[in-house]
Write a structure and sequence with these properties.
The structure holds two protein chains of two kinds. By secondary structure, chain A is of the alpha/beta class. Chain A is built from six helices and eleven strands. Helices cover about 30% and strands about 25% of the residues of chain A. Helix content of chain B is about 75%, strand content about 0%. Chain B contains eleven helices and no strands. Classes of the chains: A alpha/beta, B mainly alpha.
Chain lengths: ~230, ~230
Amino acid sequence: MGPILFRFQIKNTNPVSLMVDISLQMGQILVLYGPSGSGKTSILRSIAGLMKPEDAILEGLGQVWQSSKDNVFVPARSRPVGMVFQDYALFPHMPAWENIAMGCHESKDQAMLWLRQFGMESFANRLPRQLSGGQKQRVALLRALAREPKLLLLDEPFSALDWHTRKTLYPELLGLRDKMGYAIILVTHDWEEVKLLSDWVVMLEEGKIYQQGKASELVHVQFDYN
Amino acid sequence: MDWLALIVTLKMALGTCIILLPVALVLGRYLARYEFFGKWLIEVIIILPLILPPTVMGYYLLVVFGSNGWVGLLFEQWFGISLVFHMEGLILASVLFNLPFAIYPIQRAFLAIEPSILEAAALCGLSQFRTFVKIELPLIWPGLVSALILVFTHTLGEFGIILMVGGSIPGETRTLSISIYDKVQSFDFAAAHTMSLFLFLFSTIVIVCLGILTKKQYGTKDGPHLV
């Protein structure tokens, strides 16, 4: 693990209450774990630049992404961040290769290269509605990776998938981290996922850090999701 | 068959579509994307032609388009065009009358795009313009086609507002609907029947063709959503 390269201090009251201070290193998988409404997705959206918290200092790789004090706000399209949405948010009118190409300056060659790396070449011309859940998830991940981000944000990317598909995707994610050295923030409310994937866990409740540490050191709290 | 009236009708319908669709695209997107002070007032103004009787709207347009009306004066001074009883006036009246038919399908199509799709586009690094061209425009295509069908076919059958603003000048403002009315007034039912049947068939064929085009484009069974 390298030095701390990302630091996100976020305070917000409306529409969601947040008060967190999170640090991250390159090559680290940080998992945000907590019940629905605990602010996991809002933290991710703030880091990505899709939401502007009232008071925040967001820094990554020596650059300020947001500083409320200095009135700095780098828009989402200019942050070195890739994100996989919970519903994948694939462009429904574009085949898989074109979805991925949107992340790499609309280059078909680059997109095909990404598909080849993940053994998905044969799905290149399929529209999102012609793909299975696991295939959609991979295309969404490749689209995020195609931008060559430094930080990868994953918003419950496995929640819609069955256990068998998940089991094939977990090693892929870990392999990706090891090979590319991305910093990854993963949102989940599945403790099994936390144990399997996390280097560091931040447990959230009502927008605040409840406890943090390695998964093996934390007291597991079973949250009520209803 | 009154061929002159057909040419006038087609000129008016095409002119209305060409002017109205870009306006509706901008306005529909703005209304779908942004909240601003006075938005409700703009929405009320847009919906007015649906509620007002065409003759009432036609009367007020006649007043403002006339030589003493502010719009009429503006056009005469700036472009040397007299609106009342001329094609330009017909097209402008038709554009205003068709505002809701063009804007609402487009506004609804923009609203139907999931916000996460646009957020994903931003995170792909796409500019607002590229997002509009590559993502939004292809996704609102069925709404755009619906707007085009509604405006075109609605313009073909316009009567009250056209009669008020344009009168019935052959080759200039007498459209097919007005010609049908004139033929009925003079008991020439055969001619009225021919033109009515033509309008009926033409409108139906246009709707079917555009519906097929939309299906081919998207491979859906839905076709264009008409309202």
